Amino acid sequence: MSKTQETRRESYLAILPTLAQRQKTVLQILKDYGEMTAQEVADSLFLMNITPTNERNFAAPRLTELCDMGLAEAIGKKVCGKTGRTVSIWSATDKAKKNGLEPTDDATPLRIELSVKIWLNSLERGGGKPKQVKQGGV
């Protein structure tokens, strides 16, 4: 095996646990905070200090992977406050909810705090109204 192949394999093996953890985190965000776009999930990851920026590409691939696993689904569309383009709205599926992946018990205060942070962040970018906070789970 060449040095390049070795380093590629080492890099791949190093990120495998991160990818699995990121998928879990993205799914938990959908369960705790409800329906969101990839950008809103990315904003959440950033505001929770999980990613270094709110770049959409930290969330979008994980949403696609979760969709392929049947744990998340695109349920609608809306105009993104950041790009002005039509984007998908994602949600955790019934399969995810039936497998014991319910919102955490202490999610309500965090849900409100995160919704306010996302709203303030969107206002700084010229966005619109805050997302309605759902009480008592997804």
Sum this structure up briefly.
The protein is mostly helical and 138 residues long.
Question: Can you put this structure into words, describing what you see?
Answer:
The protein is mainly alpha-helical and 138 residues long. The protein has one domain (3-124): Arc Repressor Mutant, subunit A. It is 53% helix and 11% strand. The chain has helices at 3-33, 38-47, 60-68, 94-98, 107-124, and strands at residues 72-79, 86-92. Strand 1 and strand 2 (86-92) form a beta hairpin. The radius of gyration is 16 Å and the shape is globular.
Per-chain topology:
Elements lengths: L2 H31 L4 H10 L12 H9 L3 E8 L6 E7 L1 H5 L8 H18 L14
Antiparallel strand pairs: 1-2
Helix pairs in contact: 1-3, 2-5
Apparent shape: globular
Side by side, the strands of the main sheet go 1-2
Order of helices and strands: HHHEEHH
Portion in beta strands: 5-15%
User: How much helicity do the residues have?
Assistant: 40-55%
Mean pLDDT: 77
Kindly identify the CATH topology.
Arc Repressor Mutant, subunit A
What is the CATH-assigned architecture?
A: Orthogonal Bundle
* Alpha-beta classification: mainly alpha
The overall number of domains is 1
Low-pLDDT segments: 129-138
Distance, first to last CA: 48 Å
- What's the helix count? 5
- Could you tell me the number of beta strands? 2
**Main sheet, how many strands, which sense, barrel?**
2 strands, antiparallel
The Rg value, from CA coordinates, equals 16 Å
CATH superfamily: Winged helix-like DNA-binding domain superfamily/Winged helix DNA-binding domain
Q: What is the CATH top level name?
A: Mainly Alpha
